[in-house]
Amino acid sequence: MQLDFHYYATYCAAFLAGYTHEECMDICYSAQFVDECTAAFLSRIMVPDKYATTQLNLELMDMPTDILGLQKITGIWTAFHFLPYDLYAEKKWASKRYKNKYRLICGPNGELVSKTIDLAKDKPLQAVGIAMHILADTWAHRYFAGTPSLVINNTNYDFYELIPDGNGFTERQISFRHNATLPDDIEKGLYTNSLYQGNENSIMNLGHGRAGHFPDYSFARYKYTPMWGNYSEILKDNPSDYMNAFCQMIYAMKYLRGSNDVFELEKYDTEAIADYKERIRGILEKRQLNANADWKAFGEELSGMEIEDFNINKYLDEYRGALIEQKKHTFLGKFLNAALDQKIMVKSEIQKSGNILVGFPSKKLKGNNI
Amino acid sequence: MTRIQKIKSFIFSIFMIIAAVALILYPEHAYSYIILILGVGLLIYGINTLIYFFTMARHMIGGKYMLYKGVIFTDFGYLTCTLNNIPRIYVILYLVILHSFTGLVEILRALENRSHGGSFKLKLAHGIFDMILAICCIVFIKDTHIVVIVYSFGLIYSALFNIVGALRKNV
Question: How far is A224 from chain B (nearest CA, A)?
Fold first, then answer.
């Protein structure tokens, strides 16, 4: 997903869940900040990179992909962008080495989603925003894993976009290219993806890099044959999945602010959007590179307040100016502590399953120190 | 970088320096060593690819490609190890491509770091130095002994760079 959903749509969902405009701004800022909190950003505020929630492309290229490098990459991307669906999934005749990767395939409504939401309960709004980012991404990034893996994440020529045409759909093969300077061309079906690398652990094979940015567009409907699927074809319907993500976010946030007593998987608050369903569907299905303007207009109509544009430096001075013992009470301090809690929780669960891709079982996970 | 990665990088750098000094001291054998290293490298890569096929890629669509690749590279590895007279120009061209590509990538990384407000000078310097090495290889393409020395200095420079990186404190 991209800024339009993580920032503006999260604002809308938070408002529909009952939060005030100010609270919604904190939540959606935190949700989007998950995509911005890199080691390069943290170095500007002298914070260790263990608090990073994402990595720049070239930071990834700098990482060695030995087991320790893999653990670091996987620790970040599984915890915040590709939450694993089933850490104990089985595959016949597969080696442990293969299963360690296979079990990290992302999907919605896994047990870790529940744990993520529970972790954000009774925590600052920054934790709520982080949880919403992760929940939303389980829908967009399903079928890909947050670890570099050719055998899981690679794609091939069998990748078709389904374009609405009257009452049906037209199939068009997607042409992937590698020129990162060119924007995706929706009309011609040209999308940028990462280079093919035959090395299993190449960072080119991380997440949906081999499918480019395409899975992050809300309008995208596509079918393809995933590398891990024994030649079975998968149909991915983003408008429908994104609608589920939006309704699940509302449901989860109602639980987090105390309106609902429990959070259960596979439950979606469709009532909250009953009056806006067609409007939301229209935004999700509109073929455009980003839906910022549409979601922003919708959010501002809902709350009657202006939603300011995302600014990565918004809370920088507050953090820099705070005394050391006060930093944990700043916006960024709360965000970083919540992020570390989430990372430790996911890593612990993955380690518990006997998977060494986020760390060796004996390694003690360190807590907060902001 | 974790502590283990730092130790690994440090030890590897020491070996790089030893190898570079050996190449400078015995330039007449340098090409044979480079070919030997290349051959053994291909052999290890081929065998690794075969192991990769049997443990991972056989579950992947199109995974048989890895089987073919493993067999071919193992074969190339054996073949290269048996060669003792290869035109030196190919080895030099290999060095030119290696250094220019590494230099370009380092410069691009430095520029991206700069655009995000991070440190970039060390990386930029490394990238520029690699480009200079590539240019030197082209300039001295006829004098193969000088190229060996240039290459060895490149190795020493990279090793020192890695040692500095390993000794640097994490933020």
Answer: 12
CB of A15 closer than 8 Å to CB of A303: yes
> pLDDT tier at B171 (50, 70, 90 boundaries)?
very low
Confidence of residue A367 (pLDDT cuts 50, 70, 90): low
Instruction: State mean pLDDT over A218-228.
Output: 95
Q: Are A106 and A96 in contact (CB under 8 A)?
A: no
- Number of Cβ within a 10 Å radius of residue B7: 12
Interface test with B, best of A45, A58, A197 (most B CBs within 10 A): A58
Contact A44/B117, CB-based, under 8 Å? yes
Out of B4, B62, B112, the one facing A156 most closely (by C-beta) is B62
A150/B117 touch (CB, cutoff 8 Å), yes or no: no
Q: Which phi and psi angles does A208 have, rounded to 5°?
A: -100, 25
Note whether B31 and B90 are within 8 A (CB): no
Q: Is there a contact between B57 and A151 if contact means CB atoms under 8 Å apart? A: yes
Where are chain A's structural domains?
3-148+238-352, 153-236
Whole-prediction pTM value?
0.82
CB B149 within 8 A of CB A28: no
